[in-house]
Write a structure and sequence with these properties.
With 108 residues, the protein is α+β, with helices and mostly antiparallel strands. The chain is 38% helix and 26% strand. Strands 1-2-3-4-5 form a 5-stranded antiparallel β-sheet. The longest helix has 17 residues.
Length: 108
Amino acid sequence: MHDDVRAYVAAIPDETRALFEHVHGLITSEHPDAEMVQSYKMPTYVVGTHRLHVAAWKHGLSLYGWQDDDGFVERHPELYNGKGTLKLPVGHQIPDDEIRALVRSSLS
């Protein structure tokens, strides 16, 4: 992990840190080959030419650069925030398999 990403992660609010760590674990379990860099001032997972950006905010995470090849937004319209943004609020109960599928379609 690059120093700028490490600093970003260290600054994540306590309310959001557990969610970030959980999603990070799901991403890296699906793509252990993903490089984590900073892009657009947020952690970005890179596999080949594919990128998945994950931004933390006080009440959750936002995902950018994702690909919805399996109907994720149709199954979870409450998470779609328009303009290519998914918002995962702290406390939202989304199955890990759903996040894993989104990661696979986004980084493969």
